[in-house]
Design brief:
This protein is α+β, with helices and mostly antiparallel strands. Helices cover about 25% and strands about 35% of the residues. A 4-stranded antiparallel β-sheet has the order 1-2-4-3, with helices on one face. About 10% of the residues are buried.
Length: about 80
């Protein structure tokens, strides 16, 4: 998605991926410096198949949560518990 949406018409794209563990929670944050998510995607009303698959994996397989936001580009934060 970053290549398709954030990189369009640009020479460079910056991506930052971070993974951290806080007690029993693993947090994965992905951000780019593109135009950010459209409002319908932020509200999860206009999400396509790719976002649906990721949400389904996070919520059902990992029993976690996912948040989308805009902060000088698109930000996706996925959290899940490492406890069984």
């Amino acid at each position: 998605n970053s290549i398709k949406h954030a990189f369009a018409g640009r020479e460079t794209l910056h991506l930052v991926i971070s993974i951290s563990k806080m007690e029993d929670i693993i947090e994965f944050i992905y951000r780019d410096d593109g135009p950010g998510f459209p409002s319908d995607v932020l509200s999860l009303r206009g999400s396509g198949a790719g976002l649906y698959i990721i949400r389904r994996l996070v919520e059902h397989d990992l029993r976690g949560g996912m948040e989308l936001s805009n902060d000088n580009g698109a930000v996706c934060c996925i959290r899940h518990s490492v406890k069984g």
